[in-house]
Amino acid sequence: MSQAVTNFPATTRSKPKTLWLIVGTVFLVLLAWAGIDLFAPRQTSLREFDAKEVARLETAMWRSYYDKERLALFGKLAELLRRQYRLPLLRSNAVAYQAAKAAFVFKEGKSRNDYEKALPSLVNYYGAIRTVSDIAFDVDRVAKLELEWWIIHRERNQYTRADLDRSLAELPAAIYQMPVEKFAEHARLRAEAMVIRDTKAAQSGVSEADWQRIDELLQASWQSLHQAVN
Asked: Hey, which of 7, 10, 74, 115 would disulfide with 100, CB 3.0 to 4.6 Å?
């Protein structure tokens, strides 16, 4: 009785080795891409942005925030960072996570001590922006100014409308290192959009027509800022 042939061709035996080589190569390429995306030096101009598109995304983010849609808010933040501030894919998502986290930590707060728990994430957010920015702004100061207008807006019964306008103007003034007066119109229009949202929400609810008006005000606000910094 003849012995069965058990030797396989060399090409068949090498297939698993070739497969693992391909998988390993792809993994290394992806790892290198992720490293470049997240950590490679890059610089972007904070003065160059599409005001209309920033306004559209801010309106969408407001709606997501008040509807408690965390994933939608995160997605719009990441889109803003990619399209307007030219962050790469992974980095835009990592930075957006910090901003979204800060927003919802703040949303759950009941007092200033609670609100200030959002500050570390805001520092991380603005720190990432500063890393790629062509403007050497003070990260800690800007993060605190961001949180301050959030607090003034949340506790609006304890502050005046002028307080809100001022706080909204102080934030871009610190970022762009320009006089606060340059951003008075930007702040006024943005605050007006907030007042409409707040007033309508406290009454019958915010209608689509209200959101359209809010978007128009935000478009005018961001156009004013664009003109101020350029």
From this structure: 74
